[in-house]
Queue: 3 jobs
Job 1
Amino acid sequence: MARDLLPPARMSLPEFAEKHRFLPGAGGGRGEPWRNDLTPYLVEPMEAADGAFNNNTTVLVGPGQIGKTVVPEN
């Protein structure tokens, strides 16, 4: 029972996304899990956002519909 009272293990934002994040499926289903290997260009911005308390601003610039919005969602 004491194990349930311990704080969760610390992990980076990309690790958390792969373990807990699911992309919405068609028709509102559970969808599929987030995979960093499908969007490797988003790992570095997620790591920068994860350490945001050390940064004043994190900027991600790129073309539309490449996944920029999911970085803060993760």
Job 2
Amino acid sequence: MKKLDILLLKSYLGPLILTFCIALFVLDMMFLWTYVDDLIGKGISGFLLAELMFYASAVKVPMAFPIAVLVASIMTFGNFGERFELTSIKSSGISLFRFMLPLIYFTIFMSIAAFYFSNNILPIANLKFTSLLSDIRHQKPALSFQEKIFNRNIDNFAIRIDSKSQDQKSVYGVIIYDHSENKGNNHLILADSAQFGYLNNGAVMTFDLYNGHQYKEETVPAETDKPAKLMQTSYKKWQKHFDLSEFQLNREDASSLSSLHRMLNLKQLSNGIDSVNAEIDDERKLMYDNIGRYNILLNDSANVSIDSTLIADFYTELDTMPLSEKGNIYKVTLVKLRNVKNILVSKQEVFKYKNKDMIQYLVYMHQKFTLSAACIVLFFIGAPLGAIIKKGGFGWPMLSATLFFVVYIVASIMGEKTAEQMVVTPAQGMWFSTILLLPVGVFLTYKAMNDSPLLSGDFYKRLFSFKWLKKKDA
């Protein structure tokens, strides 16, 4: 029996790793396609792009791993069924559940590992990925000079070159328009040749200009009749500096992003929930204190205070008051009611924001567990489904897995959105997809253990075969 368990694990690990890598690759390509406009033309090095893809892959693991479990389980048991090995195993007295037992233990172990990844590694990956992608998206295009085309990437400068050397360090026929004074093309710099250089780790670019001229027109007030002065200077060598700090990739401060909910682990989410609860209690106490300052049944002009438990007496005394006194009480009461209404309206928005914040914490807290639960549920769908279909390879398993995975993804998105909109509780929304597919897994497992032909293609071929119909007619 141990040899059979080892055979099953070996048969399962190959498809699991393969489908996981394929799913991760497809998700990475989707990421590149989505953000291709933000990455092109930024002068990103291969190392930086590899780092970004590494973090992106880590972020996509929660989506890639469940589908890998589903496809691998269908392929493994489908291969055993297609080669009639599953039939031989059952005929030897080994039940399907006993045969699945090693993979059940393995799936539980992988679910625990998935929870550890979701709680400890995924928040860090989300933080690094978001920070790096944000900096790349806000980075200006790479500073590159094309021959005989003005480059305006550096603020307040337009630079044109006629040609470049093969080593890309020297340029010839340099024209520089300096617009730093916002007076149009009043400052022109010409040079026969120039060489690039950088200072302060690339924050400053130096241009060593050789054999050139500088022309600068000094403008005069329009009301004067004096002509504009043109200053001309010549030079053999002149080093001009350009500030490139805006082109540098400055990693966004991680502390400014770490408060986002998806970048927190379970303990941090729990602390966040406690903090929001404390803030809600403080706001509620402050609201009660502010409302308590307005005693609606208080007549300021007559200095008469009526206890709320003696409403009847208050109305009796109110009837005996002069008309002018009643008018004062009505006016004072109306002002206090308006103040109370304003307090309630403002606090309603505060509580609404706090509740949304609380829901976000709860959503991501439940999400830590739903990944592990999804792996177990999808295994109990894939393994019996493969045993029933008895088709290996990538065809039927991939088609069947895609259908169930689409249902899982759609249900997960629906549950999360309805939870965020406070239509259902966070627990109901985040566990909706698992609760929806759990009966399907139980049903398929029961049918597979009882050799049900419900989903067997051969059963329906025999059912609707021409020979079967001919025998019936005879």
Job 3
Amino acid sequence: FGAGSILSARLSLIIAASAIGLRLGIISESVNAAIVLVSLVTVSLAPVLFNRIIPSAKDDSEKLILVAGAGELGIRVAEHLHKHHDHVLLIAKNEEQKERAVQRGMKEIVAQIDIGDPELQPYMENARAVVCTYNSAENSYKVCKMAKQVYGVDHIVARVDDPQEINKFEQLGVVTMNIALDRAALLGLLVRNPGMYNLLTRTDDDSDVGEVVVNKSSHYGKRIREIDLPEELLILALYRDNEYLIPNGDTELVQGDKLSLFGRYACLEKAEEIFG
């Protein structure tokens, strides 16, 4: 309907046809004036009608990260994300969990909603990522499947304690974390690269590590040096075709490149605007 309203609005073609009809004596002056008037009204109203019918795209910066499960792990995840200036909503399944989160200073970002409740729908529709922190793999899988298949959430992360369940989640396109398997990697990172670990986990400064995806056609084929980036922004890596690359100023960007960045929050936000 939106496309039809704006495509049906023509001005020059109708006025030209009307002028030809008037010159040939097929229509009268009054009919010609009426045609011109209707054309002007149609062209004026069509864009307004189009904008009312077609909803504007939501800005990704307004989208939230949904943390499902307000246990101790869920609360810590929500706290960490909130301190990194992410828009977070923590889902508590009962009043006790909600009260515990409120006591931790999370009153503004916690809500008591049962999974499957229709009240959850607007939050799922506005989610750019979902994190499942349940102890139960069954509950986590239910939420992940709903987020992926019903609401089309691209980025989903789930805690999966049973290694035998990991494959089922990965087939769904979910990024899994198994505490028993992954803590060895975290301890290794802390031993080998304590500075990097500190960089990724600290929340007491104005800097952060972030990712952006190149989605603006004006940057396709451009060298990094040709793009006006904030001075206090560092490109750490480029992920393309399932491979991490170390970019330099002469690296040409292609659609879908994922850039890992480090810089101040304002610089990271600016980078999101630049790359789309």
